[in-house]
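YM 10:42: Replication initiator protein A sequence, as discussed on the call
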Amino acid sequence: MLYALFLDRAGISRKKGYIETDGTIRLYFTVEDAKAKLRRSRQVATRAFHELESCGLIVRRKQGLGRPAVITLNLPADKRRDANDR
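YM 10:58: structure's back
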């Protein structure tokens, strides 16, 4: 469910121009945002972030104290295309 929220947010981020130099989409979505949207505890939201990271669907990069992590969204179609290019 969290990945679906990221995909929805990716459309907004694309329109606003939050695109990295390599073409990936940059998102700002905190654990607190996920907690509120999913209506689950902080622990469940954190676990969902870790699962998405371990599957390679997102990459989180911390910015520092008090600032939200930058999330780079990896689309599954990109993974298939990369595998075909090799």
